[in-house]
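call fold(seq) -> tokens
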Amino acid sequence: MSEIQTLYRDDHLLAVAKPSGLVVHRGWARDEVVLMDLARELSGRRVHPLHRLDRGTSGVVLFAFEPEVVARFQAQLHDGGASKRYLALVRGHPPASGTIDHPVPKARKSKERRPAVTDFRSLAVAGRYALVEARPRTGRLHQIRRHFKHMSWPILGDVHYGKGDHNRLLRDRFGLNRLALHAFEVQVDHPVTGERLRIQAPPPRDFTEPLAALDLEPTIGRVLEDLGLPEELPESYRATGEGPNPM
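ret:
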């Protein structure tokens, strides 16, 4: 099995850094290995996912060891007590900051739509592309990807909502072989202790190296510092062992 990086662990919760290309759990996918398998192997305990990320999205994913913790966490998500922050590389030049308030489909092929709100701010620009921070206030299916497409700022590497010619260009010329979306931070009140947790995952090399090729490298240190992330990236995104517990 592949190795994953532990970001946080205590008696009730486990947070790991999901690589791009790996699904969180078995559902529509029939993958031989999913993130739940790796988290269970890493912890030696049964795990329950508290939320999910799309296959192509990398970043923080939280698991609970007890089923009752799941319900407490889900209540926080619905009440707005938990927050998530993402990095996205998009085609286009979004304004310095703003809010996208646009309903999205309830399910993949559903005509029913649900309210969805995403705050954003532009972090850096290189040619026709921009690095953007996204903070979804709601947690809808493919919300950030749909919202940025709606604003004509498709995320690079997105085969469903993006632009094929730009995806091919970024892949062939700049080495972007993934969806350029990374969940770098989750903040949540601990479902058992009540203490506020801030769990972060620095962007992996398959995300940052194309940024460097796009001449965004001179701004990466400033951007990461602004976001409160370490400037030095890990040698490998797939590391084992228990990392520090950011509280």
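Residues 233-247 have pLDDT under 50 and may be disordered.
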